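Figure 6 in text form: structure in, sequence out.
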């Protein structure tokens, strides 16, 4: 969506970019589980209302993973460890 809205520019087709990114070492695609979906819905109101942001935050919490983001609202949510 960021590419289609002109907020992100890639040097190749989005699907090709995703497929190539998933071939990189230590990069994996996780499934959206019912636990992550429910956790996203139950996050406090301080987490952005955008459903995608809430799913990203809930996924990071579920996996105990750091999150690479420039999104200030996600960076301000203490339970999520942000990198960058």
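Output sequence:
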């Amino acid at each position: 969506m960021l590419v289609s809205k002109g907020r992100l520019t890639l040097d190749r087709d989005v699907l090709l970019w995703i497929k190539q990114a998933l071939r990189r070492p230590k990069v994996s695609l996780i499934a959206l589980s019912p636990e992550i979906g429910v956790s996203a819905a139950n996050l406090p109101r301080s987490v952005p209302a955008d459903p995608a942001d809430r799913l990203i935050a809930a996924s990071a919490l579920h996996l105990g993973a750091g999150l690479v983001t420039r999104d200030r609202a996600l960076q301000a949510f203490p339970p999520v460890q942000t990198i960058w």
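Caption detail: Residues 31-83 form one domain.
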